[in-house]
Write a structure and sequence with these properties.
Number of strands: 8
Radius of gyration: 17 Å
Shape: globular
Structural class: alpha/beta
């Protein structure tokens, strides 16, 4: 069984370098609705295999650019880990602060974040279980942060990963085999 995991294309969005908590939260919502830039990717594999995408528009847009208009199976199980401001602040703080503090809260399952680590891992595990039940080769178009969680879950279920990185570029893919 081969699972090709692809990170969505580059999003056409410019983050503010500094923002208040309210601005950061609005930017997160705008990013989730933004389109991707045009790109070309050469993805190997059986193009007739099932294609799973997240429910976010950038995942569908990426699938269309890679595979053309086809029937994709969209699932919230593949959505990016949501992020929001870690504190309420009218002071403009750096983007790095918002990203790091929000992900730390996610790691420790802090209720300020829409989803904690336990829920994210559970979501990834449910998706992997679904794949194991179907026993089919497939493509999975998902998101950078969630990819790391998904890869860990695939490894725990006996998949071999062709390479693991700290950061996956937009449009980059990895192969998981079992």
């Amino acid at each position: 069984m081969n699972v090709m995991i692809i990170r969505h294309g580059k999003v056409d969005f410019q983050w503010r370098s500094r923002s208040t908590s309210e601005q950061f939260d609005r930017d997160c919502m705008a990013y989730d609705k933004a389109e991707i830039t045009s790109f070309s990717a050469r993805i190997p594999g059986n193009k007739s295999a099932k294609i799973y995408i997240s429910s976010l528009p950038r995942s569908r847009d990426t699938a269309i650019q890679i595979f053309g208009k086809k029937n994709f199976t969209a699932t919230k199980l593949l959505d990016e880990v949501p992020l929001r401001s870690s504190i309420v602040s009218k002071i403009k703080l750096p983007l790095l602060f918002w990203n790091l503090s929000g992900r730390l809260q996610w790691f420790f399952n802090h209720p300020r974040q829409p989803e904690g680590r336990k829920n994210t891992v559970s979501r990834a595990e449910r998706f992997v279980e679904m794949l194991l039940q179907k026993k089919e080769d497939c493509f999975v178009i998902t998101h950078g942060f969630f990819m790391h969680i998904l890869i860990v879950c695939l490894k725990k279920k006996g998949f071999c990963i062709n390479h693991k990185k700290l950061k996956y570029a937009n449009g980059e893919y990895i192969t998981a085999r079992r």
